[in-house]
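Researcher: Let's try something more involved. This one mixes different molecule types, so please make sure each is placed in the same coordinate frame as the others.
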Amino acid sequence: MTRSLAVTLNALGLYAIALVLLVAFAAQLVLHELPCPLCLLQRIQFAMLAVGPILNLRFGPRTSHYAVSLFTALAGATFAARQILLHVMPGDPGYGSALLGYHYYSWAFLGFAAAIVALGAMLLFDEQFREVDEPRPINAFARRAVWLVLALTLLNVISTLLECGFAACSDNPVAYELLNSRP
Amino acid sequence: MEFTALFLAVAIVMVVAWWGTRTLALALFAATLLVSIATYLHHASDVLKLSF
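Model: All components are placed in one shared frame. Result:
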């Protein structure tokens, strides 16, 4: 795998992360379901997954940048697994709505597992880590991916502030604390 | 409040990774990851009703 192909795949990874954050937002706004604390932690881990690809786009692919994403994906999978275990007993309806038969935390676990597999696959290709004399300019496709993920993360800052206010977030939130109304 | 702070911290890490130095971005990333794990451990207080 060439260095430029690896950079393109990292940009595509950022778009995939943006899609996950967008779907989570859509569920929150369309289905009027506020994310619980564990759900928010999983969203935070999805946003943190973007740090590795951003470093790869800016400084070129390095194993340490993929390690950053691997640690994040492992933490995210652990958080999602914890929520799956909380609702795994027969008769437990689970938290929130199911999307295509699975709750969001089940999808989150699958997403983090897929990220771990993808990162392992990327690390198989040594050619991308070869040093180049001249740094290549970052193209618009990659720049847009970074801006998109950053904008969605900042929107989550606002959304979480509205939901939780300035106190501890409710275990089962049903209204935006700062708006003092149902979603 | 802690989740708002964590999202803000992630956004700051992204900004530093894109415009700042690599070392600072990695250090901020490590700090944010540790705080998010600490937040998880703080909230993971419910007993899992499981038997194997």
